[in-house]
Amino acid sequence: MALLLVNDVSLFCEARLARTYKNYYSRKRLEEKKLIVEKTERLTSYKSYLSKGLDASISLIEWTDFNWQMKNSIRTIEAFESFMGITFPKKERRELEKTVKKFPLCITPYYASLIDTENMYNDPIYKQAFPNPAELIISKQDMKDPLHEDKDSPTEGITHRYPDRVLFLISNRCAMYCRHCTRKRKVGDPDHIPSKQQIIAGLDYIRNHTEIRDVLLSGGDALMLPDDYLDWILTELNSMPHVEVVRIGTRTPVVLPYRITDKLVAMLRRHHPIWLNTHFNHPRELTPSARDALSKLADAGIPLGNQSVLLSGVNDCPQIMKKLNQKLVQNRVRPYYLFQCDLSEGLTHFRTSIGKGIEIMESLRGHTSGFAVPTFVIDAPGGGGKIPVMPNYVLSWSTNKMVLRNYEGVITTYQEPDDYKPAKCNLKCLKCNLQLEEDDKAPIGVEKLLADSDKTISLVPKGNLRLVRRKNGNCKEQ
Ligand code: SF4
Questions:
Q1: 183 CB under 6 A from ligand 1?
Q2: Predicted structure pTM score
Q3: Which of 17, 123, 278, 348 has the fewest Cβ atoms within 10 Å of its own Cβ atom?
Q4: Whose CA is nearest to atom 7 of ligand 1?
């Protein structure tokens, strides 16, 4: 009996071993297949580069080296013409030259190689990368700094808008100058290169403001800094006990995926918790090289998010946005925000109506996985922060019933509990039954109109004439 049992166990172990081997080999085959696909894609973009009649001595190793890509960035109209094997008509060229003078041009050979030469003027990659003379049209609602990032800046490079978090601009370099960039005014401008002194001053500001628990490193592109410099900034932030999380904003996985090297990823993972937000706008940008970069970051335990901008002629289509968001989650990237295009100068031709964004949201919610649906936001002109907008799902409401509609148009009711007794909040969390065990901060803004702990009954705009009349004694009752 005992022998039988031993045999059973060894048979079981063998079967398990065989299964493990099988899994191992099928995994290995999958990995090999993946490698071949990646190589093919790199070769495709590389071959498309070679086919454009350029230097055939460039090796695949150079092509996939981000330093080579940066050194060989396309920065002039002529370089673009020779890269694409095209010549712009004289008049168009003159207009393009004027545009580049105001808003400089920089495209990585990798990103340029994704442009479909056959249908260039309609190509979403081309439109995001190559100047358009329409950028020179300044409409009356355009502003240099629509989000008032400079006005909300207590020290150069820091924007302190929300109570517990800051935006820290640590680089003005980008792998590519996106034509729709909201910080066009700064990107690539030598006057805006943050000095080490400036970075130290920014770090000091964060160190001295213990209410800051979340720091967003951006630029430009935060990942355009050398590894050791970024390592230093992250080490400084890690040494501040009140900084709970650091976020990095970068478009390198989209326009320069080779920047996501093993060395960079190994450095980043030493500074957890790090979150990374990238910026894919079109499903065609999720190439095997881009997917490889995302996979390296996700494997290092870095939660990935994506911020897209709604751009006319690029992604203002429910089908494109659905495909983009589905591809993102397939690659372990959570769609985070879909932005209404800002009112920055030079973006008029990219702007859509807000209604287009709501239409897109209507086609996402319920029609695809909930975690593939970003929040559609308007970054408030004047610096009010992000304001979510969405289709209306609440149709009506009574004392104990809400009438809602779903994505199919089904109208339903939610019966609210008759005996719900909310805990009255006096902000003494240490004594509260809900056991937060730390005291909360006083509410602000609209939040305080709802709070039990605050007696405010209305928020009144400064200079309200009715209140001015009261103050001046023009009313009977004071
Ligand atoms: S990478 Fe970001 S900051 Fe840089 S140009 Fe593009 S959108 Fe602007």
A1: yes
A2: 0.84
A3: 17
A4: 181
Q: Token digits for 205?
A: 């500001």
**Residue 308, φ and ψ in degrees, nearest 5:** -105, 160
Q: Note the pLDDT of residue 147.
A: 78
174 Cβ below 6 A of ligand 1: yes
For the domain 158-388, what is the CATH code?
3.20.20.70
Q: What is the pLDDT of residues 333-369, one digit of tens each?
A: 999 999 999 999 999 999 999 999 999 999 999 999 9
| Per-residue buried b or exposed e for 111-148, using 16+ beta carbons within 10 Å of the residue's own CB | bbbbbeeeeeeebbbbbbbbbbeebbeeeeebeebbbb
Residue 13 has pLDDT above 50, yes or no: no
Which residue carries 């029609």 as its tokens? 367
Domains of the chain by residue range: 60-132, 158-388, 422-478
Pocket test residue of 149, 183, 218 for ligand 1, highest count of atoms within 8 A of CB: 183
- Residue 141: which pLDDT band, with cuts at 50, 70 and 90? confident
Q: Report pLDDT digits (tens) over 258-280.
A: 999 999 999 999 999 999 999 99
Give the Å distance between the CA of 276 and the centre of ligand 1.
15
